[in-house]
Amino acid sequence: MSRELDRNLPVDPIKMIRPRRKITGMSAILLPFLASGDIDWIGFTAHVERTLAAELTPAVNMDTGYANLISDTVRREVLDRTRSIAAGRRFVAGVFVGDHAGDVLNVDSYRQGAADVTHHGGLPIFFQSFGLAKLADDDIAPAYEQIARDCDSFLAFELGEMFAPFGKIYSLDVYERLMRQSKCAGAKHSSLCRTLEWQRIQLRDHVRPDFMVLTGNDLAIDMVIYGSDYLLGLSTFAPEAFAIRDRMWSQGDERFYELNDLLQYLGAFAFRHPVPAYKHSAAMFLKLRYGLTTDQTHPRSPTRPDSDREILALINDQLNQQLKG
After folding, report:
1. Residue range 106-155, pLDDT digits in tens
2. How far apart are CA 110 and CA 127, in angstroms?
3. CA–CA separation, 93 vs 239, rounded Å?
4. Quick check: 102 and 65 in contact, CB under 8 A?
5. Cα gap 123→301, rounded to integer Å
6. 40-43 contacts: CB < 8 A, separation 24 or more?
7. What is the pTM of this model?
């Protein structure tokens, strides 16, 4: 056990900046749809391949892949196809348990979901659920030990309620207990709050330096300069641009800031209220940038106005100009 960290010490972000740090990038894959309402598997395959080619780790069956809206059959087909595309390369996949407010934790469903992911060669990341989020603080870490019993390794996930009603941001004490579980390789943090994430980085550095703090803050993608890695929905809009940005940081290239600013502008626009509609923004952008067949979304997912396409087209043009320069 390491020396106790003084939780009352203020965070000093300036001192936390880590020049030339190599960034680990994971990118949540959008599940695209055809005009018929069927899944666009050709578009899905192309996007997973595009992400792997950029040397980002694809993350499937995440919120960006409509994890809480798709059926178990679709979820398994996503795993089948991703295993084939990845061909032994690393990928992450969400383990989602659909329950209702007031339900108890469904350990068996979590274990089955994790088994499906590991069987396909993926690294499971556990979505929260009503049953998991309602647990008392002292019961949360033991619950992860139960649901991850048969895993060699897993990722945890803190999800703010602005994304989903079954989400919860843990206390630092709970976060540390998760961090001390050897099987827990890291945790995605989606509070959209810089201070909470800085605290987690500081705690990680003190307790377990190899633990990955994966930022899910699409409104502050520069958290990587302070020591976070990332698992973002925004990176699905242009995975190669994120990969170039990451290399710029590791090489000390000052162009990092200009490219990051443009990608952040895209994030601020796409992740405005209502936040879940960012998936429609992603589909619009992927159609503009890569020729996705349609920009349709899951029928139960919120949409953006048609006027967004003009703004996204301008951002895409600016991005192309920067990447050429």
Report:
1. 999 999 999 999 999 999 999 999 999 999 999 999 999 999 999 999 99
2. 9
3. 17
4. no
5. 26
6. 40/292, 40/293, 40/294, 41/81, 42/293, 43/286, 43/292, 43/293
7. 0.95
